[in-house]
Amino acid sequence: MARIVVTGANGQLGTELLRLPLPAGWTIQGFSRAEADIRDPAAIQRLVAGADLLVNAAAYTAVDKAEEEADIAYQINAEAPGLLAAACREAGIPMIHVSTDYVFDGSKADAYVESDPVAPLGVYGASKELGERAVRKELERHVILRTSWVYAAHGRNFVKTMLRLGTEREALRVVADQHGAPTAAGDIAAAILAISRKLLAGSTAYGTYHYTAEDVTSWHGFAEAIFDLAQPALGKRPTVEAIPTSAYPTPAQRPANSALDCSKVMAAFAPPRRNWRTALQEVLREILASSRL
Ligand SMILES: NC(=O)C1=CN([C@@H]2O[C@H](COP(=O)(O)OP(=O)(O)OC[C@H]3O[C@@H](n4cnc5c(N)ncnc54)[C@H](OP(=O)(O)O)[C@@H]3O)[C@@H](O)[C@H]2O)C=CC1
Ligand SMILES: Cc1cn([C@H]2C[C@H](O)[C@@H](COP(=O)(O)OP(=O)(O)O[C@H]3O[C@@H](C)C(=O)[C@@H](O)[C@H]3O)O2)c(=O)[nH]c1=O
Predict the structure, then answer these.
(1) What is the pTM assigned to this prediction?
(2) Given CB 3.0 to 4.6 Å as the disulfide criterion, which of 76, 105, 206, 281 pairs with 60?
(3) Backbone angles phi, psi at 38, to 5 degrees
(4) Which CATH number fits domain 2-156+182-214+259-274: 1.10.390.10, 3.40.50.720, 3.40.50.10790, 3.40.190.10?
């Protein structure tokens, strides 16, 4: 028997967590922002009451907007995770907190390992990095799971943006000098379930981990793959020009290298893990079947 509680239940990851097939006797209860704002101490008490484990899937994820809404981004991504972690400590339960590749500056040549120094380039990354620190400070029994380039059928993401732009335009321009692993929210949810099972069975492998899909591409390579796979359903295919970051100015700077080495999580928890193209095929089928653009 286990009762898992999830914040940010209406987000990409929250939605996928609530769709998971569960082991017998397990329940997952999701709380949307309307049901439990993670900045509200009273809401936090409701979240942890009777829970065996808390997954924090709530976050402020608008990377560019965060540059002008820094206060809100810090409240949600930096301060609230500390409040959640403190409440978990008092309730005697572990917490799985989700973080991002954007805590790194992307200057490393190889994939980042967990012990590499963080150096976020923008407000979103900086707020998430402070959130990690707050969780580590407040709660020993934590797993911080950094992931990257998340997409799903539900919610806002690069895949759906590309599909929408691809129906509106003949030609798109997409940056080819930022590299990372597109990761399906459903795969992260399955990994979180695998980690939860081990933690609730007595594993003490707490700490910070990287989890993404296998293999790395660029945003341009990701866009090409999306249109290769979606072309039969869309009936058309835009051209996708590979451009440098300098040709696509954005308010927030993004890391050039977002690749995360996932050996540590595989050794400790052996979660399921797929190539990003395999997962993309599945999610695209779902998006195109439901025309949820
Ligand atoms: N998206 C990505 O590409 C990546 C995400 N991550 C991390 O993964 C995690 C999940 O991200 P993802 O599912 O994509 O994010 P989404 O933006 O899809 O979902 C986040 C959810 O958090 C909710 N939320 C925002 N503020 C609060 C609040 N104060 N209290 C309660 N809920 C709140 C949002 O509610 P509402 O809908 O009302 O705004 C939304 O439903 C986050 O920690 C994110 O930082 C890591 C790497 C990449
Ligand atoms: C729409 C578009 C974007 N781009 C570029 C801009 C940017 O460098 C890159 C990705 O754009 P987006 O703004 O969709 O993605 P972005 O919001 O930066 O995605 C990030 O979200 C946060 C929450 C994370 O934690 C990260 O892991 C990452 O997934 O693609 C183009 O080059 N052409 C385009 O037409």
Answers:
(1) 0.97
(2) 76
(3) -70, 0
(4) 3.40.50.720
